[in-house]
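queue> pop job 88
queue> type: inverse folding (structure -> sequence)
queue> payload:
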């Protein structure tokens, strides 16, 4: 997995940073910020984590004089400017520079130590220095902010104390609002995007290994090899999903739909989209309910564009809206379709509907992940038992999206030359799942 280098990240950040004048003529607060960030970028690559943490503490937590080094002088100028926003941006950029380097170098303990260092601010002695009082006050504002909660989320993946809550299994989704928020610092967005990708890669690898070794007698008692929360049901689900092959598999249907809807008017496209989504649903009653639920929503969606030819932008906006209809409303609350499908024994159907959307518009994948994060946040106060149906949906969706959208091909192999039926796939050992990397993606 290729992670963007921090030098590239910083370069981009410098190009987009707004210049703010300090109270000192000829001075530039952005320059002071860059001095501090470049300092941490240099030492994190050259020095031990303990020394870097010591330097971070000496500068931001327990400053002495603020006179000796260039970073200390730069911070002094920021404090004297009385610019809280610039200080917090400098602090956040510095933190994410360290986290980017440590976590992607698999040095997890220093990341946790940094969070602990910040959390112990209340134990610091008071000071009469006006500049240091400002620093302490702004630090406390930061650790009581949403920014700090996002920071803890970023590190919680590597903190075993946080893993007891069921939502920790879906950190890759919870990071999506961070890297899609254009108001966040570029270091934070790149760090969140990189970690989310890393977690997705880990799950993809673990799922492939699980299916590869699932038929081995020596591995049946090793529960850690199953990366899902579905137990043995995971393998049956994989067999069922992979077993849908031939001319009407999901990828083929998506490709056919894309070709057939080119140059359609938007109104005609919406009608075709509805037919595509409910096509091949086994439960006709469910298909009719979906048709009823989505027809009115699509009919009134972007009506002013009905006579226009479908464009890529309109496709993206439409797919994003349909994802919301199936997951969360604009206020972040679960949609009625989500509750009815996921809670009444149809999480697989819901997951397939979302897959179909992603297959015709891959760029909607990010929006889906943001909606997943909203669902998780909505139910996070419930126990695992109380929202087992939500967890079931999240697990099934992760499996299906991994099977159909990642660069691993899953094949169902007949070991006893029996006919391929849903019954034989689900109930017997006649079929085994094998995975291999797809090349050229």
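queue> result:
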């Amino acid at each position: 997995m290729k992670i963007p280098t921090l030098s590239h990240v910083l370069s981009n950040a410098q190009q987009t940073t707004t210049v703010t004048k300090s109270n000192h003529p000829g001075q530039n607060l952005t320059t002071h910020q860059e001095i501090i960030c470049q300092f941490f970028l240099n030492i994190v690559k050259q020095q031990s984590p303990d020394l870097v943490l010591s330097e971070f503490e000496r500068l931001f937590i327990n400053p002495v004089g603020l006179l000796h080094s260039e970073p200390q002088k730069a911070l002094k100028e920021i404090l004297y400017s009385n610019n809280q926003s610039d200080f917090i941006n400098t602090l956040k950029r510095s933190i994410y520079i360290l986290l980017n380097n440590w976590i992607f170098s698999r040095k997890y303990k220093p990341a946790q130590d940094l969070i602990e260092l910040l959390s112990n601010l209340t134990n610091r002695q008071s000071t009469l220095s006006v500049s240091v009082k400002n620093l302490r006050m702004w630090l406390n504002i930061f650790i009581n902010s949403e920014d700090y909660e996002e920071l803890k989320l970023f590190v919680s993946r590597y903190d075993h104390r946080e893993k007891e809550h069921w939502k920790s299994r879906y950190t890759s989704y919870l990071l999506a609002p961070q890297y899609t928020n254009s108001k966040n610092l570029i270091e934070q967005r790149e760090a969140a995007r990189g970690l989310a990708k890393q977690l997705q890669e880990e799950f993809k690898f673990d799922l492939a290994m699980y299916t590869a070794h699932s038929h081995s007698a020596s591995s049946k008692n090793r529960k850690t090899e199953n990366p899902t929360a579905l137990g043995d049901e995971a393998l049956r689900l994989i067999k069922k999903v992979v077993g849908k092959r031939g001319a009407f598999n999901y990828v083929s249907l998506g490709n056919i739909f894309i070709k057939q809807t080119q140059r359609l008017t938007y109104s005609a496209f919406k009608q075709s989209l509805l037919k595509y989504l409910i096509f091949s649903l086994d439960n006709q009653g469910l298909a009719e309910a979906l048709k009823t639920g989505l027809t009115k929503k699509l009919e009134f969606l972007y009506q002013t564009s009905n006579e226009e030819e479908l464009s890529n932008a309109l496709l993206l906006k439409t797919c994003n809206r349909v994802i919301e209809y199936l997951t969360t409303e604009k206020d972040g609350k679960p949609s009625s379709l989500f509750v009815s499908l996921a809670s009444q024994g149809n999480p697989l159907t819901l997951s397939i509907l979302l897959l179909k959307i992603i297959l015709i518009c891959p760029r909607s994948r990010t929006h889906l992940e943001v909606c997943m994060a909203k669902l998780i946040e909505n139910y996070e106060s419930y126990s695992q038992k109380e929202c087992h149906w939500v967890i079931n949906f999240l697990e099934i969706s992760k499996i299906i999206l991994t099977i159909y959208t990642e660069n691993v091909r899953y094949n169902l192999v007949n070991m006893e030359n029996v006919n391929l039926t849903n019954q034989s796939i689900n109930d017997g050992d006649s079929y085994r799942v094998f995975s291999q990397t797809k090349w050229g993606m």
